[in-house]
Amino acid sequence: MPKKRVIAIDRSNKEWKEKIISSIIIATATVSSLLLLAMLLFILKESWPVWSQIGISSFLSGASWRPLGSPPQIGILSMIVSTLWVAGGALLIATPLGFACAIFLAEFAPPLLAAVLRPVVNILTGIPSVVYGFLGAAVLVKFFEVKFDLASGESLFAASLILAIMVIPFIVTNSEAALRSVPLEYRYAAMALGVSRQHLAMKILVPLARKGMLGALALAFGRSMGETMAVLMLAGNILRLPMSWFAKGEPLPALIALELGSTTPGSLHYQALFAAGLVLVLMVMTVNLGINILLYRLQKGGHTI
Amino acid sequence: MKRTLMDRLQMACFWVSGLFILLVLLSIIGYLIWRGGPFINSEFIMSSPSGFPLGTEGGIFPAIKGTLWLILLALIMSIIPGLLTAIYLSEYGRQGQLPVIINLLVQSMAGVPSIITGLFVYALGVVTLGWGISLLAGGLALAIMVFPVIVISSRDALLAVDDNYRLVANSLGVSRSYTLFRVILPRAAAGILAGWLLALGYAAGATAPIMVTAAAIIASSSGALLEPVMALPYHLYILFNEHISMNHAYATALVLLGLLLFINVLALSLQSLQERINSH
Amino acid sequence: MNAIEFIDFNTFYGSKPVLQNINLGFDSNSITAIIGPSGCGKTTLLRSINRTAEMERGYKSQGEIQVFGESIMEVKSLSYLRRQVGMVYQTPVALPLSIRENVLFGPRYYGVKNRSELDTITEYCLRQVALWDEVKDRLKRPASQLSGGQKQRLAIARALAVEPRVLLLDEPCSSLDPASTALIEELLTRLAKDLCIIIVTHNLFQARRISNETAFILDGRLIEKAPTAILFSSPQSSETQGFVSGLFG
Questions:
Q1: Could you say which DSSP state residue A108 is in?
Q2: Which residues contact B181 (CB under 8 A, 6 or more apart)?
């Protein structure tokens, strides 16, 4: 069956089209990613008078928040401490449970149970924080009030507890992924030596996966610091420097959520909330970035996993 | 002997923590059904809040409508930039510094607390552009919040497509966009769609960003862009926090949870469909 | 004029040289086999011709390759170059489309819309690779259902459908059974009437069976190129002698 050449050679039209498509894609990707910087700059701009007039150190170290007093006092130390306390406490509770569950899922869970647990973890991630916060406040706080005969059961501890339950699924998913990404050769080598599965998991896989597991913790910590609804409903919302885990406090996200609506744009109060927001986002980004740098160092130190 | 005892103890811990996760989910769902279930009926779903204080009687229809408007708007505003950014990262930006930077920015964006997104949109949309507390501002805040979710899920779905297809198509001299539309996108469609659903669910449950940009205690939620709206998560917060009605709070929480379970289970099944396609 | 001409061609991955000082010509209407131990740069040489090698990170090249007298770095477009130079890879790849759409993947891009022309192309290309009779009743079925050997022939048909003048094959039979290999060798011999075919192979018997000329590459250098019979019976260099007699490989 003979065949003549049927396809035209000139495709300059197509080349043109492709150039337009690829420039649209590159432009969109660049512009939308720059949105993050735009957000930071905008918040910086809105909060600028606070930094220039009150100064970084007195804003951060001031323990008194009376933006409407005369003279107004705006210091966010107690909110920063509350934020760190709540998030650190949540991590303290969530880490052992999360890691144990991840190891269980990756190594020991019978396949059928694992097939049930994995979607369960995913679904837990999808439950919104307001539902966790509501249940925490309606059930847990009530329980504390009855059990310990308190006038009100809200505390940093209650917030930590609920936050812990919220971030456990994150820790589980990310650490399990890290454990699973350990190359199979290590498993085979260890099994060939006749090592027990438990020994294999604890002494070989966990150390090899520690980079990813640490990353999971950092993510969880960042998330706990930025979480709004649960802490708003559980931490007690008292603007005082918390002296213990069982005291009440008001983390930064709760402060912003509660007070933003009632400020006059352009007022010192308004600006101070943006300054608080900037501090919060920088704290979260420092944790995320810091852990990345740390992990990068670890990697350079000769460990490839 | 001591060694085995320790081993057993350790194993017990693993089992307990695994089952703990299961228990948490079951008790959340069970408790909400027990406390909220009896109050869910057609009147609760289909009517507006009433009584005094408002919400003690009536239903949550405007809140459901408002939430649907918000997530719809958020998705409309975020899928095109999200998908294009993902396409850039998986298909176009395979060399140089720009994709590394964009990846880093998107990753950092995913870590930004949602209240900060709300704060930004409050200053930009509500105050500076004069939208006021409105559906539009809330949609924008949620769109910014889910943008990284959409980029990351679509990017990963696209990257999971067999690279050999790109190689083969490339060596035929066809353009990237032709390959993308004819092979790569259809192949990754289920995974991309799953990502959109996850984003929808994430937006539907988010409270903090709409609390400062869009939500009202009572509104008709007609879909007008510059009007405030009611929303399920915010309504739940108000019912509880203002001590309006615990029964209605439980019922609202149950409706919200049901909506999210539905969306997430759909997303999970699409994801496993995509995994089956990829392993084929 | 040679179909393809390498002139003082060098490539690097990062700072590591891969191909060094290659001067080599390939005739049209003939099959040239490229042989050499694994890692010697055979595949890089092949992929340099249609410029798919430069998709790898860190790839750099110096010197020149000409396709029908045109430098590959100065062609109007990559698309123009790759239409002239078809390529078939080691793993048989069926695009996730129907059998028919696999063949028409290129032609549709290059603007063929007329239905009868599309039918003609499909049948002609599938006949050329001796696949027509096997698949003519299921052209609309997914190509993923084909066997490995059929997929590889489909890959050749897909490459032929954009009317290349050169066909590059990178160990096309290494994952196939002997029967499929025989089919492909037979059709390559037939295709060589109109095409310049270059095949990288680690199978010396295959090189002897089908190629008119053979080039031997070692450590990124061209050791020797000669008509196949001569290269295998009386090679000039002792390294070639050692390789073809199986002393190393």
A1: I
A2: none
Nearest to B173 among C57, C93, C162 (CB): C162
Extract long-range pairs of A190-199: CB within 8 Å, 24+ residues apart: A196/B7, A197/A107, A197/A108, A198/B7, A198/B10, A198/B11
- Residue B173: closest C-alpha in chain C: C79
Contacts of C136 in chain A (CB under 8 A): none
Per-residue confidence at B1, pLDDT binned at 50, 70, 90? Answer: very low
Quote the tokens at residue A252.
Answer: 């930064």
Cβ atoms within 10 A of the Cβ of A45, count?
Answer: 11
Q: Judge whether C249 lies within some domain.
A: no
Compute the residue count for chain B. 280
**CB of A57 within 8 Å of any CB in chain B?**
no
User: Can you give the pLDDT at residue A208?
Assistant: 79
Among the ranges given (A242-256, B46-60, C5-19, C197-211), the one the predictor scored with the smallest mean pLDDT: B46-60
Q: Which residues pair with C66 in a beta bridge?
A: C5, C71
Chain A positions in Cβ-Cβ contact with residue B102 (cut-off 8 Å): 29-30, 33
Task: Write down all domains in chain B, each with its CATH number in brackets.
Answer: 104-278 (1.10.3720.10)
Rounded to whole angstroms, the Cα distance separating B165 from B50 reads 59
Confidence of residue A141 (pLDDT cuts 50, 70, 90): confident
% pLDDT > 70, chain A: 93
Domain region containing C125: 4-244
Chains that contact C by 3+ CB pairs under 8 Å? Answer: A, B
**What is the interface pTM, i.e. ipTM, of the complex?**
0.91
Nearest to C5 by CA among C41, C45, C55, C52: C45
Nearest-CB residue to B92 (from A26, A165, A285): A26
> Rounded to an integer, what distance in angstroms lies between the CA atom of residue C82 and that of residue C100?
21
The residue in chain A having the minimum alpha-carbon distance to the alpha carbon of residue C110 is A7
Q: Is B250:B31 a contact under the CB 8 Å cutoff?
A: no
Contact B134, B225 (CB under 8 A): yes
CATH number for position C34: 3.40.50.300
Q: List chain C residues with CB under 8 Å of A14.
A: 79, 109, 111
What's the 3-state SS for chain B? CHHHHHHHHHHHHHHHHHHHHHHHHHHHHHHHHHHHHHHCCHHHHHCCEECCCCCCEECCHHHHHHHHHHHHHHHHHHHHHHHHHHHHHHHHCCCCCHHHHHHHHHHHHHHCCHHHHHHHHHHHHHHHCCCCCCHHHHHHHHHHHHHHHHHHHHHHHHHCCCHHHHHHHHHCCCCHHHHHHHHHHHHHHHHHHHHHHHHHHHHHHCCHHHHCCCECCCCCCCCCCCCCECCHHHHHHHHHHCCCCHHHHHHHHHHHHHHHHHHHHHHHHHHHHHHHHHCC
pLDDT tens for B189-200 read 999 999 999 999
The partner residue sitting opposite A7, judged by closest CB among C76, C77, C163, is C163
Residue B13 touches partner A, C-beta closer than 8 Å: yes
Chain B residue with the nearest C-alpha to that of C163:
B172
Whole-number percent of chain A with pLDDT over 90? 24
Judged by CB atoms closer than 8 Å, whether chains meet at A120 and B257 is answered as no
The whole domain housing A288 covers 81-259+282-300
pLDDT given for residue A298 in this prediction: 67
Tokens encoding B23: 């228990």
Q: Is A42 domain-assigned?
A: no
Going by pLDDT thresholds of 50, 70 and 90, the confidence category of residue C151 is: very high
